[in-house]
């Protein structure tokens, strides 16, 4: 069964513009799918529909076989989302924020302690988590958001531009964590503009243009013999 | 001037969400509703001021109208600006961007002040224009004086704005020295508001012993706002010189204040945005708790972290707490003497539930609680918690806030008054019905008309549709039984019980409907 299945998704905004038009794709356990497209192509709209932030007019999204429309709480408990700009509760400390998220996902005290120790140390945030988030840099906020997303060991990680604002070491560590998650049966769906990273990290790729999916599938099958960048430029200009 | 105008225009578009209103169907609907609410309020205030001016004419004191209108509008502007000066002038999210642009701090300050001026001009206009029209119809035809009066409408907001901003600035500076900056900002702000209220009330009482009605009114008016003396014919100036001096003085004070603020603007702004050092460096105990408790604690922390939210939505609760404490330490008779109520004992015995309800209804943080999530809303939207649980946490914070003041008030009233069983029952349950209704109404309206894209939290705390509508509807719910009692002579306590039942039914329906929605 697919971890994530999007079938004929169509999302129309107030101004009648079709942000996503009849988009279908599926992600299995063990997949890392890169979601590529120009600015305003419909990537974030799709990701937000997947995580239940906004509704959609047509189609169906299922997570682990459950509909996000009919069983939103169950679906959300299986996934974690990190937006492109991690606006966290600035008045809380990093610890308080992660603890808050862990409470919402009903994570036991021992599991959250383990996760905090592991990822706090890995992302070199442990000493900073006692400070209020308002004092954090963009990268520190991003790292806090990543730790909070991993605290409940989600089956599906949805990341919107996860590498923006991260320093080289944190970028390396995030890639390592992503591979670790899929090797333990999870799945990852993330948007990115960094095609080199997508090419090296993902086993699947989906390309969206003006709300329509123009290519998706195993990365080798999609791009053929050329580089992902060359393929993307070709379909983008077509 | 061109840059200041550009900044002002951008601020207006951003603050009033004009582009969103023009482009979004939902926003259009909420803008229409907000427009209707604003027009109703303007009509009410306009009528009230016409009636006040006519009452002065009937007393033969039409010459006092200009001074009266200047004093009351200035006092209202001073009071209201104090509640929002810091929110507009300092600490808004766009400041980092503005300070990085090649523009002078004086241009930023000017645009912020002009924006605040625009908001206050309408308050001044609503007071002074109707009063002026009545005055023109009943005073000797001195066209120059009339002209000066109407021109002075444009200048009335200037000095009260400067005083309020100065007090706001003092609050920022004084509280920045403390570890828990936010708490001290609130304490100082409430103290300043209390002081201004006290000065106003005590000056209103100061002329009571004077036998001549005109002299008494003049003393009271100038007691509220001394500069209004320049509009009294009894002044040493000639009648025309007074308004001229008022306009001149307003311009000079405003200009000097702006210049002083501009010099150190970035420092003041940074101080306003400094987060409390007290809440930093605290490691929480990692202990699992229920999602509701986590949401509730987060919500309470969010409310208390917002100076604007506590200052504006906590006013009714603070007022009730202070009144209850006063009632505990002094007898109802003594309190009645200070508040100018002849039979305070009888008044409280009959009207206690509605007094508590009125003050509680003023405090509705739930009406802005969802919008206050702002850009953080994705956290709740993507979390595995139901809409019901999120709304419950916001309601619980509002009810907790009410409970503090309610318990204190009930204790004060039961210990100080001789109430029979039915009166105690009414005191206990009617107030609770109003508290529940206010909270549910606020959160439901905010759910229906949220605004997550704000740059300054004052926009959602003070001037958003849910806040205005919740306050207006709650006040109508408070006024309705009193009016039915006064106009139709319906028995007060029975009418209040009837109203309480209606409010509980309405709250239940609204709550159930809001909880059925899948998206927050």
From TrEMBL, chain A:
Residues 4-235 form the ABC transporter domain. The keyword Lipid metabolism does not apply. SMART domains: AAA. PROSITE patterns: ABC_TRANSPORTER_2. It comes from the Bacteria. Keywords: ATP-binding, Nucleotide-binding, Transport. InterPro entries: AAA+_ATPase, ABC_transporter-like_ATP-bd, ABC_Transporter_VariousFunc, P-loop_NTPase. GO terms for molecular function: ATP binding; ATP hydrolysis activity. The keyword Transcription regulation does not apply. Pfam families: ABC_tran (PF00005). This is ABC transporter.
TrEMBL record, chain B:
Keywords: Membrane, Transmembrane, Transmembrane helix. The keyword Calcium does not apply. It comes from the Bacteria. The chain crosses the membrane at residues 31-52, 64-83, 114-137, 143-171, 183-201, 236-257, 307-331, 351-374, 395-415, 421-445, 465-488, 494-511. This is Uncharacterized protein. It comes from Lacrimispora algidixylanolytica.
